[in-house]
Write a structure and sequence with these properties.
Number of strands: 0
Structural class: mainly alpha
Strand content: under 5%
Number of helices: 3
Radius of gyration: 20 Å
Order of helices and strands: HHH
């Protein structure tokens, strides 16, 4: 189900994701939609955590490097 959740997150915008989830509900039922939404939220939080951690990486200062030329 994680693969499908990543697919939903890759869709082009909120309206596309909502339409996909409505389709899932009509074909598989409300419980299946809720389960998929839970996994989507988990995947979203993983992505958000990675993005926040990327912002915490130290900046490399190249100005102190000695030039060989």
């Amino acid at each position: 189900m994680e693969c499908e959740a990543r697919h939903v997150l890759s869709l082009g915008g909120l309206m596309a994701r909502r339409a996909y989830l409505e389709l899932i509900e009509s074909k598989r039922g409300a419980d299946a939609r809720k389960a998929l939404e839970a996994v989507i939220r988990l995947e979203w939080s993983k992505r958000k955590a990675v993005t926040e951690n990327d912002n915490e990486r130290p900046v490399i200062d190249n100005s102190s490097k000695v030039s060989n030329g």
